[in-house]
Each structure stands twice: as structure tokens, then as C-alpha cells.
Amino acid sequence: MLALLLLAAGCGGHSSQSAKRKAITQYIERVDAVEQELRYPLLKIEKTYRDFSAHPGTMKKAAPQFATAEATLHTLQTRLGLIDPPPDARRLRTLLVALIGAQVELAHELTTLVNFLPAFSAALTSLGPADAQLKKSLAAVAVPKPKPVKPAQLKAARAAFKRAVSAAAAGQAVALDTYLREIAKVQVRLRGLRPPPSMAPAYRTQLATLARVRATGTALVGALQKKQYARVAVLDRSFQKAATTSTSLAAQRAQIAAVKGYNARVKAVSELALRVDAERARLQKSLG
Predict the structure, then answer these.
(1) Which 8-state DSSP code applies to residue 129?
(2) Whole-angstrom distance, CA of residue 254 vs CA of residue 258
């Protein structure tokens, strides 16, 4: 990633009779001087990225290190941008600025990622217990089943069955409403997060899933409370289906596209680094 570490190797302080050669050499020496001053933090950046690639689970530990790395790259970007190149080194300077700019953007994305993922996971932590509690609460509701009775008992049996159905519907409504209140809290927590581009599809999918679950669940609670039993079966199917949004083909494609986009940005940085090396080699050749 950090092609600048090799940027000025071998381009040091050979004396030159040519003003053109001297100007180019001085420019590269100034670039090299900036890099040398930041060599230690740049090496730490390289180690941070390498360690994180090998052990991506250590996000909390990596977060402050990534923030420091991003700040260091910003400093390098600013200082390199302040060095005026001679005409023959303008292309090198343009490529350098583009390279460090791309590195800063990637560093920012990684900084955002290592801060986002733990917060994203924490925001969703209560969903598992809430799902389990909903199943437990619904299972505890006694749902009456019709059973044969004597004709003389039919009227009383119907009244009792109606009361039992009403009580079951009320119990189910309470269980669902409690669950939906937890969904609302999760939505609030999620809306306070800002995902990096690579996580944006997964983030949007999760929000969409929760919105659908809450909307269909709210409609189901309303039907239960209003004793609109004819609608309950249809709404219950919609409620169950709502949770499948996150596994839909469109969501999967969006996440794959995001990962490909990140990989393309990494590849672009590598290609820029190669172009910097090629331009440096061309300048070295022109210097003899």
C-alpha cells in the first residue's frame, strides 16, 4: 500500500551540472525528506494494516490505530501537496497526490469500518433475545380449540370459546407489541450509525428488514386488538415473510457489489503506486 517508502530510493544527492537535473533531484529529495520524517509512523501504519488483515476480529483494538494511521496519511498528503515541483516533475507530483489521496480515502473507509462494525453488532444484540422472548410468550398463550359439546351446552360453549379466543388474541397482541417496541429501539440505534461504502448495502438491508417487520407486526397487533380474526392469518404470513428481506437475492447482490467496489478501490491504489514507480524510473533515466 505505501509505495512512497520506495519512492526516492537511489535518487539522493548526486551533483549535477544541469539546472533541469538539479531541480528534479531537489524535488525528489524534498519528497524523500518528508517521507523520512514520517517513516516510523508509516511503518506502524503498514503493520497495523497487516495485523488487521491477519486478525480482523481485533476491531476494538485496531480502531484507535486506524485513526492515527489516517491522521498520519493526512499529514503526508498535506506536506507533499505543499512541495512545488519543477515542470519535468509535475506528472510525478500529480501521481503522488493522487496516490496519497486514494490511500487517505481507503484509510478513512477502514477507520469507519472498524468503528462501525462493533457498533452495528451491538445495536443488533437485543434482537436474538427479543425473538426468543416472543416465541416463548406466544407459546405461553393458551389458544382455544373447538371441541364437540352437547346441544344444550352449545350457547354457553360458544360464549366461553369467544372469550377464550379474545383472551388469546389479547395475549398475542401484548407479546407482539413488546417485541415491536424492542424493534423500534434497535431502529433508533441503527439510524445513529454511518456505514462505510462496503457495509452500506448490509446496513440498508437491515433497516429495511426491521421496517417491514415492524410495519407488518403493527398491522397484526391492530387486527388482534380489533378482533379482526379474518385478517390475522394473512397478516401473520406477511409478518413471518418480512424477516426474509436480509436473505433476498437483491440484498445479496448489493453486498457483493459493495465488496467488489472496495476491492476495485484497493486495486486502483496498487495501480497508482505502479504508475508512480514508472514515472520515477522515467525521471531517473532522464537524469542519466
Answers:
(1) H
(2) 6
- The count of other CB atoms within 10 Å of the CB of residue 43 is 12
Contact 264, 198 (CB under 8 A): no
Do the Cβ atoms of 109 and 197 come closer than 8 Å? yes
Produce one character per residue of 75-111: b if its CB has 16 or more CB atoms within 10 Å, e if not.
Answer: ebbebbeebebbebbeebbebbeebbbbbbbbbbbbb
Banded model confidence at residue 139, pLDDT cuts 50, 70, 90:
very high
Q: pLDDT tens, 224-282?
A: 999 998 899 999 999 988 877 656 666 667 667 777 887 888 888 888 888 988 998 88
Cell of 256: 457483493
pLDDT band at 57 (very low <50, low <70, confident <90, very high): low
Tell me how crowded residue 179 is: count the other CB atoms within 10 A of its CB: 22
